[in-house]
What does this fold into?
Amino acid sequence: MNQGAQFQKGTFLFPIIINLKGFFNMVKNQNFNSEAIIKELKKLDEKHRDYLEKDGKWLIGGFESIISYDGKISTIQGEQVTLKKEIYMMLPSEIREEIAQFMDVE
It folds into this structure.
């Protein structure tokens, strides 16, 4: 094998490594960092206290009731949480937009 072929192989793998790094960052920030997600949901409880006391009474337990724990532990950080999409979609659009800033809602 000549040096030119080895160089091409190494260059080919470089973009794949970069893409995997981005993928793992996405997983860390949006799916597995349950502590950070819960912290943000508790902030929303405080910020939208009036909503929870009036129109959002059905959210027993506050905004934390829009997630469930899968019981899977990530080697990256924390427990995996899943958005309860049907509950999320019942929220006012302004609150959904706030949640979308710190959690993957797709």
Q: What stands out?
A: The helical segments are 3-32, 34-47, 49-53, 85-88, 93-100. The CA atoms of residues 59 and 79 lie 22 Å apart. Confidence is low (pLDDT under 50) at residues 5-30.
